[in-house]
Write a structure and sequence with these properties.
- The structure is a homodimer.
- By secondary structure, the first copy, chain A, is an all-alpha fold.
- Chain A has helices spanning about 20-35, 40-50, 65-75, 90-105, 110-115, 120-135, 140-165, 170-180, 190, 195, 200-220.
- Chain A has a domain at about 80-220: Tetracycline Repressor, domain 2.
- In chain A, helix 1 packs across helix 3 (about 65-75), helix 6 packs across helix 7 and helix 7 runs antiparallel to helix 11 (about 200-220).
- The longest helix of chain A is centred in the middle third of the chain and has 27 residues, at about 140-165.
- The N and C termini of chain A lie far apart (about 55 Å).
- The interface between A and B is large, with 69 and 68 residues.
- Chain A binds a DNA duplex (19 and 19 nucleotides) through loops.
DNA sequence: ACCTGAACACCGTTCAAGT
DNA sequence: ACCTGAACACCGTTCAAGT
């Protein structure tokens, strides 16, 4: 924290970097990390860069485009777990958990991932890796491709839901109160399972859900029997 | 306002219904059906009711609250499939497909369902029904409760993703073009599976995903080694 | 080619003033 | 208690004018 204050070096921190797509995306990601998804706007990104919102349109088509660029850039920074010799299921789980943690690691990113759709190199290397694992498990092309989509969408939706609850100003207790205000005669099971419905921390629930999906993907056609020696 | 000589029965069609939570929610749902989620705003709902946005705050805490009320009301109108004597899996699938079709049936609803979180009677009767089916299949309380959450979240996410693509002004081809512009050496599997990744209509993909999750839920828990037991 | 200020057409929310 | 107009503090996007 406390370093000897160096003579102000302008070299390490240019006063006003020239605009570029990269600079804009980086500033937008910084802003979102600070103020959340709802604090992100073209005008504020521009202000961060000491310019007006109109200037950004040279590099970015519109807000949605910036969202997609931000998501792909953030995913590109994510570190993929070692591609070791673990069985496909463990490898898939650690990749998915890393993805989940990346979404949780930067404020606003989970919601961005549910809103925007990234198809650039940052997102696609995750697809490539997961596709490799599911094909290696013996699934055919369609099952592997749709499986990757299913797994990543589920991870994204879980992260977004949890982030939305936190950011939405909706206290978790108030949801529970609403459920418990329902007439017990008409909703006996919901009432009886309230504890289970609201139990489980974020990552625990997410890991459970992903395991169930992997169970489903492994269970039906396409899996070579005897691969897992787990049965 | 006009008390003398009513030419027709004003009882059947009041010119300006008095404000109430129900009237506001109905007007909001109508507006969204017409102009989509992005066309929905408190100001426009108020204009629809011949008043100002400030007037709505007597009945609704804020925009997020209105979203939740809208979602619950829309789900409450949804017709659940007959509670016949079908096996639990078929019954669950037809319930989930009905939910999916409800989300697709009203413009903007899918995105609303991913954004808002409904815990009122309209949403809870779906939870109640699904909970009943999964418990009937022999799952314990936690597995059934988390399973319902998983299934409904997946259905919602699929619907929202598809709706978002349509509404976001993002042509599906342009995503594919972006994927196919990636260097083949680094993303060979993504490129090789492009057809599979983009294949399948909305309901087909959704039904496949839900079947996979049901497979996973139906599979005996604990067959996998390691990871699962740390919960 | 890039950047800008100003304008356009919107937002959610609050509040004092009315009834 | 309910309703309202006006105000506040914002938006994304366009465009003519500058460099």
């Amino acid at each position: 924290m406390n370093e000897r204050t160096p003579p102000t070096s302008r070299r390490s921190r240019p006063a006003k970097p020239p605009l570029s797509r990269e600079v804009i995306v980086a500033a937008a990601l910084d802003l979102m990390a600070r103020d959340g998804f709802s604090g992100l706007s073209l005008r504020r990104v521009a202000a961060e860069l000491d310019t007006g919102a109109a200037s950004l349109y040279v590099y970015v088509a519109n807000l949605g485009h910036l969202h997609r660029l931000m998501l792909d850039a953030a995913l590109g920074e994510m570190q993929l777990p070692e591609d070791g010799s673990a069985p496909w299921r463990e490898a898939a789980m650690s990749l998915l958990l890393a993805y989940l943690q990346a979404l949780h690691g930067r404020r606003g990113l989970a919601r961005l991932a549910m809103t925007a759709l990234a198809a650039g190199p940052g997102a696609m290397r995750i697809w490539e890796r997961l596709l490799h694992l599911l094909r290696g498990a013996g699934m055919d092309g369609r099952r592997a491709a749709w499986g990757v989509d299913l797994l990543l969408l589920q991870a994204t939706a879980i992260a977004a839901e949890q982030a939305g609850r936190d950011a939405g100003g909706l206290r978790p207790e108030s949801i529970r109160e609403e459920v418990e205000a329902l007439p017990e005669e008409r909703y006996p099971l919901v009432r009886a399972h309230a504890d289970d419905l609201f139990s489980g921390g974020g990552l625990q629930r997410a890991a459970w859900a992903l395991e169930v999906i992997l169970d489903g993907l492994a269970a039906a056609p396409g899996v070579r029997p005897g691969l897992g020696e787990t049965l």
